[in-house]
Amino acid sequence: MIYQVYPRSFADATGDGMGDLRGIIARLPSLAHLGVDAVWLSPFYTSPQKDAGYDVADYCDVDPRFGTIADFDALVAEAHELGLKVIIDLVPNHSSDQHVWFQQALASPEGSPERARYLFRDGIGENGDTPPNNWESVFGGPAWTRITRADGTPGQWYLHLFDTSQPDFDWQNPWVREQFLDILRFWLDRGADGFRVDVAHGLIKEAGLPDYTPPADSGSMGGSTRPLGAAESHDGSGVHDHEYSLAEVFPEPPPTPPYWAQDGVHEIYRDWRALIDSYDGDRVLVAEAWVEPLDRLAHWVRPDEMNQAFNFAYLSTRWKADDIREVIDESLAAFIGVGAPSTWVLSNHDVVRHASRLALTIENPQGYGMGPKSPGRPDPVLGLRRARAATALMLALPGSAYIYQGEELGLPEDIDLPDSARQDPTWFRTNHERYGRDGCRVPIPWEADAPSYGFGPTANSWLPQPKDWAPFARDSQLGVAGSTIELYRSALGLRGGHELGHGTLEWLPGYPADVIAFSNGSVTVIANLTDSELRLPDGELLLSSEAIDGRTLPSDTTVWLRSRA
Ligand code: GLC
Questions:
Q1: Would you say 200 and 300 are in contact if contact means Cβ atoms under 8 Å apart?
Q2: Sheet hosting strand 505-507, strand order edge to edge
Q3: pTM of the model
Q4: Whose CA is nearest to atom 9 of ligand 1?
Q5: Which residues does ligand 1 sit against, CB inside 6 Å?
Q6: Which domains does the chain have, with CATH numbers?
Q7: Mutate which of 45, 49, 95, 198 to test ligand 1's pocket (most atoms within 8 Å of Cβ)?
Q8: pLDDT tens digit string along 258-289?
């Protein structure tokens, strides 16, 4: 199981309100105690932090806000000492506009090798004042920004699929490929156990950069047609009345956007795989690729490419038994079909936390976020109950599970974050139409009674923490039967003990349609998604997501039983 640390919000050793590597080192024993196998660190590189570090100004150094390269070395040493692997985030699609490579490109003439590192193009029209094509940034607004020449006249445009401060590299350029192989070597030599590869579906753009208009219902990152987090209406009827149009029943597959999932990306990862395999130990490449359907995503994890890919189809599945069974079947078939383990994930730093998302009554596309004026505000009690049931289900599945810091505390999305505190570029680039991702990035609570809930030694916190988070603090929950952290600890311990990650799933017949029941080796898993209680079969209770009497399984509850021999 891989635990995502979001460094700015995990633990702050200096007290400046921004988490740092020394803070992480001090808290590593608590992750070992939780039972994780590896940590994945979101970016800590030198960066102006226009997109929380996903705008890298130096790929081979640590931002002073987070510490030093010596701190990184100490972190790896300490993690390895505790038996934890360290996976770091690599951001190859774009750099920061403050990177020396981009600054040199700006200072060099049109058509120069420095410009050829990025995607500079002339504008359209007599004065070149129309962008080279109609692409839109993932964060809203146009994907092109026009530069100003040294003499003050308007110059070329450059492509940025994300913020204007994140210019896209031209990955057709061999020079770019060589730089990144060097960057991989730099971190592998320092002991990194692998890389989570940011926007791993975006590096290659279709030749000619043709115009593209996304289908109206597509998600922001990958043309996903699945709603993210849409739950059944909870009005008692359990369903939304909805007449399906022909187009919904037989949807046209959306054309692949010319900037996502182009075939040319695969040769890049083949080169990287060959490099990491030349190192000792089990080093891994994990793709952040918002690609659907799953059998297409599986291309990223063919035997000579990456080792794992995040399963965003699973994350995006609503709390509905048929949908969950279907996505599990599709995932296992797609990944096993190429010889890779399936992965499972419910939360990360880009989506509404699942303790809130699973009780939403409206769709919430990836990255849109939630705020005080968002419709469909989730019921926090129902959300947490479903989140615990969903996690207990996920941690019983064969494959690799990823969890995001704070979910083991049952943290909800911070929906009421004051607008003045928001920092996600999405919030600014959509003129405050989309709240963005800050609500899942609030520094996490460690101690109920300490300033900043023990996030750091002072009350400082780069995003304000809600006043009512004391019950979520780690020290409020540790050793308390039934707490969310103890549920995670038990589930992870049993997952390891029963080798569920390496097991085989078999659906169990004879249960109502809205009950998910399967066996994985020596464990039987039953999740009740109906509105009523279910009689439990006989068997030793190993785990339950809620306190139960042992005879009946209430709604929105998952149990693990020891399978009969
Ligand atoms: C990935 C990251 C996200 C970031 C984007 C641009 O999707 O997870 O946080 O904003 O890439 O780098």
A1: yes
A2: 505-507, 515-520, 523-528, 557-562, 541-544
A3: 0.94
A4: 350
A5: 51, 54, 91, 162, 198-199, 288, 349-350
A6: 2-93+174-492 (3.20.20.80), 100-159 (3.90.400.10), 504-562 (2.60.40.1180)
A7: 198
A8: 999 999 999 999 999 999 999 999 999 999 99
